[in-house]
Amino acid sequence: METTLNGSRRLLALCVALIGCCCCCSLAAAELQLPNASNIKDLNELGAHYLPAGYGPANVSLADLQRLLEQKCAKANAALPASEVNATKLSDDIQQAGGRLMECLNGLANITVVLDEVERARPLGDLDVVFEKYCLRLPQARQCLTDFNAVLLPCLTREERQHNAVMQRIIGKLLDFVCYKNGDQIALFIAEQGPECLEQHKDNVGRCLEKSFGHYMPSQLNISTVELPELVLGSRQCTELHDFENCVVRHLENCTNITPSNIVESMFRYVRKESNCQQVVDRVTRDHSEALTQRAGAAPSWAHSAGAAAATITLALGLAVM
Ligand SMILES: *[C@@H]1O[C@H](CO)[C@@H](O)[C@H](O)[C@H]1NC(C)=O
Ligand SMILES: *[C@@H]1O[C@H](CO)[C@@H](O)[C@H](O)[C@H]1NC(C)=O
Ligand SMILES: *[C@@H]1O[C@H](CO)[C@@H](O)[C@H](O)[C@H]1NC(C)=O
Ligand SMILES: *[C@@H]1O[C@H](CO)[C@@H](O)[C@H](O)[C@H]1NC(C)=O
Ligand SMILES: *[C@@H]1O[C@H](CO)[C@@H](O)[C@H](O)[C@H]1NC(C)=O
Ligand SMILES: *[C@@H]1O[C@H](CO)[C@@H](O)[C@H](O)[C@H]1NC(C)=O
């Protein structure tokens, strides 16, 4: 019972981590401001499991959050005359919208309740009934996210806004994936010991996360000096995401049941197709095989221009592909 519940939570954590990584740091940050909603507490505990020490909600105060957001809003609007921009107000708006978003989502699905229902339905083979119920609320959930995003937009740079459109589509696609045929995939994942599989490899998944995205999180976090990163999904992030995918899938393939690994892989593929990440990954794979046929020790051609960090990631990816 206990491991299953933890497993389901880990699944959610993985989704949250995935969404968090490729999407909205601001979104995640905004969620931190609701200390006593029990759902959030759960989610934070989940997140904390995959986060390096020092990144938990305990270390990030409301004042930090306000400052980070304000800084971001001011920076995004730096080109406008100062009299036309009130970064404090924009930041307040985002925090309020974050609160509304959480209320809205809580109203649609209380995670504690969902997990209890899953627990009860699982031995009876009734998982599809549970997921169908929640998947029917998907349009409302989309609306909550759209409303929140509208408030976020004024604090994004022009480039981030373009990426934001892609990220919106990705989140939409993730929701579609989870609710494909009213939750068939997720029900299958749970029925086929997906949560146990994740539980078994939680440390490996954590290491994959660290390996692919760890450089975004300095180990010596100083919240008073840190800035929110650019929220973009460029070729570098695509490569990192693919690296992460390979790493996770490779570990999950070791579980007795292959289905969870297949489902996770198709989820990643779904996301990749919906962004421009597929092109990047194709190019990296092609360059990698070209480099191999030339028997040259050199990194793929595009890596030269992309800098040392990208080259390192490409090599890591190359190793993962092999
Ligand atoms: C909710 O949070 C407030 C302040 O953050 C605190 O005073 C209160 O005790 C909390 N309530 C519960 C039920 O934890
Ligand atoms: C979720 O449901 C549980 C159990 O019914 C309840 O105690 C808790 O307050 C709910 N949380 C929220 C945020 O509504
Ligand atoms: C950050 O959190 C860790 C535990 O998660 C704690 O030991 C540390 O003192 C915290 N640091 C600050 C600056 O609050
Ligand atoms: C900016 O907005 C805040 C409210 O969010 C307000 O208190 C403050 O006076 C505004 N500043 C300016 C310069 O208008
Ligand atoms: C964090 O940065 C501030 C400002 O630079 C500095 O005063 C403070 O000592 C730093 N804290 C830590 C723990 O490094
Ligand atoms: C798979 O399991 C074998 C045997 O336990 C182990 O040696 C190997 O390292 C595992 N591979 C991964 C990717 O976890």
UniProtKB/TrEMBL annotation:
Is the keyword DNA-binding in the record? no
InterPro entries cross-referenced by the UniProt entry: DUF1397 (IPR009832)
Pfam families associated with the record: DUF1397
- UniProt keyword terms in alphabetical order: Signal
Which residues lie in coiled coils? Answer: none
Which N-terminal stretch is annotated as signal sequence? 1-30
Q: Which domain of life, per UniProt? A: Eukaryota
According to UniProt, the name of this protein is Protein TsetseEP domain-containing protein
GN (gene name): Dmoj\GI15617
